[in-house]
From TrEMBL:
Domain of life: Bacteria
Family: Belongs to the SIMIBI class G3E GTPase family. ArgK/MeaB subfamily.
Entry protein name: Methylmalonyl Co-A mutase-associated GTPase MeaB
InterPro entries, A to Z: AAA+_ATPase, GTPase/Isobutyryl-CoA_mutase, GTPase_ArgK, P-loop_NTPase
């Protein structure tokens, strides 16, 4: 069947069987905003909700791609199917993802139990792509047990991953100022598990002590999760098993406490809101032939109106 006439339900069926090409096609439809995207999401929904979504974030150079590769290897040793969404900076020329970091995960490219996809951020802030939530649903429905989401690596703006992931892993490294960055950027609040990568370097123990001290000072209600701090050397695979164990422990706590359900409801709510806002903007564009929005903006600039009144007028229209 040709690519143009291939039905969404057939693509979904093939993705459910683990066919990498079908999975890739579905994610491409998500990224491109395909006209059949509604049908695709409807076909995927009955099969989604099983995968554990793990976000990995941290400053550039901390070793996110290498750590992701080490985690994939450990998860595969446990006979789990793994999906990876690696969000890259966008090319300023093509808008596509810059794929240099994916070389570090090339060892898993021929493993049928692993699906790796790079996605372009396309200017979307927060370290992830706007299409990430629906791409996660594709991998979830395709039978992945765990989906790893590796963020761009832009530092303090990456907190959005915490709204997408069931478990958020924050990576730090000695000698990079990461401890100070974590304390002032809110990263401490989003981390469910902290990993000190490159722990064979001087200063790793100090970073670990600083983190544990800050975690102990945080005001947490009784029964709240206390983030563990794991030391890893991702290039050697050291600490990967401990890191996976910590993620598993967080999932068990989240399921028992109800936090997992709360996070997934929040994720779905954010996704619904984003889709609705996108549809609303499209409707505005379709009906604004008389440049109504420009007229309202001009009135605000000239002082004839204020932004709230102008927004009310736009909504009435």
């Amino acid at each position: 069947m040709s690519r143009r006439t291939e039905a969404p339900d057939e693509l979904v069926a093939r993705a459910r069987e683990g066919e990498a090409r079908a999975i890739g096609r579905l994610i491409s439809q998500v990224e491109d905003g395909s006209p059949v995207l509604r049908e695709v999401m409807a076909a995927l929904t009955p099969y989604a909700g099983r995968a554990h979504i793990v976000g990995l974030t941290g400053s550039p150079g901390v070793g996110k791609s290498t750590s992701t590769s080490a985690l994939v290897a450990e998860l595969r040793r446990r006979d789990l199917r793994v999906g990876v969404l690696a969000v890259d900076p966008s090319s300023p020329f093509s808008g596509g993802a810059l794929l240099g970091d994916r070389i570090r995960m090339s060892e898993h490219a021929t493993d049928p139990g692993v699906f790796i996809r790079s996605m372009a951020a396309r200017g979307h802030l927060g370290g992830v792509s706007r299409a990430t939530p629906q791409a996660l649903r594709v991998l979830d429905a395709a039978g992945c047990d765990v989906v790893l989401v590796e963020t761009v690596g832009v530092g303090q703006s990456e907190v959005e991953i915490a709204r997408l992931a069931d478990t958020t892993v924050v990576l730090l490294a000695p000698g990079m100022g990461d401890g100070i960055q974590a304390f002032k950027a809110g990263i401490l609040e989003i981390g469910d598990v902290f990993a000190i990568n490159k722990a064979d370097r001087d200063g790793a123990d100090q970073v670990r002590r600083d983190l544990r001290s800050m975690i102990s000072l945080a005001d947490r209600p009784e029964g709240a999760w206390r983030p563990p701090v794991i030391k890893t050397v991702a290039t050697e695979g050291q600490g990967a098993a401990d890191l996976v164990d910590a993620v598993d422990q967080h999932r068990a706590w989240a399921e028992e406490s109800g936090e997992l359900d709360r996070r997934r409801v929040r994720r779905a709510r954010d996704e619904i809101e984003a889709i609705a806002l996108t549809a609303l903007r499209e409707r505005w564009g379709a009906v604004d032939e008389g440049n109504r929005l420009d007229g309202l903006a001009t009135a605000v600039v000239s002082g004839e109106s204020d932004p709230y009144s102008a927004a009310d007028a736009l909504l009435r229209d």
